[in-house]
């Protein structure tokens, strides 16, 4: 579902450096805009969302609508797939004539100091951890920790129908599933690749999915 390889153009945008934390999400809840997470524990912790020990860990058990509501409360949106992948992969590397496979580059020789994936904690980690795995733009945990909701409806053959050199693509008009990017603490190597695509029903929530927000750089 990530083929054929193609180029797209994306206007300047801002995207959160870190995944949205329990503490940040709770501010929206306290302002009576967001609903509380559907569950308040994590995979290995009986308390999580309301436990201050995990304030700086990614919020989980939020479905797509809950994530989008939070971003709108901040005057933002969930990133499009194109924005998310731009943030994860950077620009084309003309020096080596290739695109970055992972946020940190090309090498598959990585460990738990780069990403929180299946052989590491088997649960979420601090959002500002794994500095070695930051992207070209200095963004944390775009591979592993939690997978991330994005704006687009998911279509398996979307890339086959996309115009070459499309500008600010935003996915299909409507669908049944929303796209999810980035892999999580339960992901194997394949899910950590910056071009890997996944999807879930809009009402789905789990302990492996969180999100971050984005907005256009223009006023």
Helix fraction bin: 10-25%
- Count, helices: 5
Shape field: globular
End-to-end gap: 34 Å
Total beta strands: 8
Please summarize the sheet with the most strands. Answer: 4 strands, mixed
Structural class: alpha/beta
Brief write-up:
Helices cover 16% and strands 13% of the residues. The protein is of the alpha/beta class and 219 residues long.
Write the layout of secondary structure elements.
Elements: E1 8-9, E2 13-15, H1 22-30, H2 64-73, H3 81-89, E3 147-153, H4 158-161, E4 166-167, E5 177-181, H5 189-192, E6 197-201, E7 209-210, E8 214-216
Parallel strand pairs: 1-4, 3-7
Antiparallel strand pairs: 2-8, 3-5, 5-6
List keywords for this structure.
16% helix, 5 helices, 13% strand, 219 residues, alpha/beta, single chain, two-stranded parallel sheet, 4-stranded mixed beta sheet
What does this structure look like?
There is one protein chain. This protein has 219 residues and is of the alpha/beta class. It contains five helices and eight strands; from the N terminus they run ββαααβαββαβββ. The protein has a four-stranded mixed β-sheet. Strands 1-4 form a two-stranded parallel sheet. The protein is globular, with a radius of gyration of 16 Å. The model has no long low-confidence stretch (mean pLDDT 94).
């Amino acid at each position: 579902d990530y083929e054929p390889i193609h180029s797209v153009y994306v206007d300047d945008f801002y995207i959160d450096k870190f995944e949205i934390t329990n503490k940040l999400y709770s501010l929206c809840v306290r302002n009576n805009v967001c609903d509380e997470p559907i569950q308040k524990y994590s995979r290995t912790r009986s308390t999580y969302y309301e436990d201050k020990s995990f304030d700086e860990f990614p919020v989980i058990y939020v479905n797509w609508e809950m994530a989008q509501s939070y971003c709108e409360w901040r005057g933002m949106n969930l990133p499009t797939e194109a924005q998310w992948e731009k943030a994860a992969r950077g620009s084309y590397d003309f020096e080596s004539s290739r695109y970055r496979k992972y946020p940190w580059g090309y090498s598959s020789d990585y460990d738990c100091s780069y990403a929180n994936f299946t052989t590491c904690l088997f649960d979420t980690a601090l959002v500002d951890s794994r500095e070695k795995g930051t992207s070209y733009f200095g963004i944390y945990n775009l591979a592993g920790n939690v997978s991330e909701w994005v704006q687009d409806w998911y279509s398996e053959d979307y890339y086959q129908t996309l115009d070459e050199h499309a500008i600010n693509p935003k996915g299909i008009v409507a669908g049944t599933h929303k796209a999810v990017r980035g892999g999580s603490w339960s992901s194997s190597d394949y899910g950590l690749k910056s071009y890997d695509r996944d999807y879930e029903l809009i009402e789905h929530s789990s302990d492996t999915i969180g999100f971050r927000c984005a907005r256009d750089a223009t006023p």
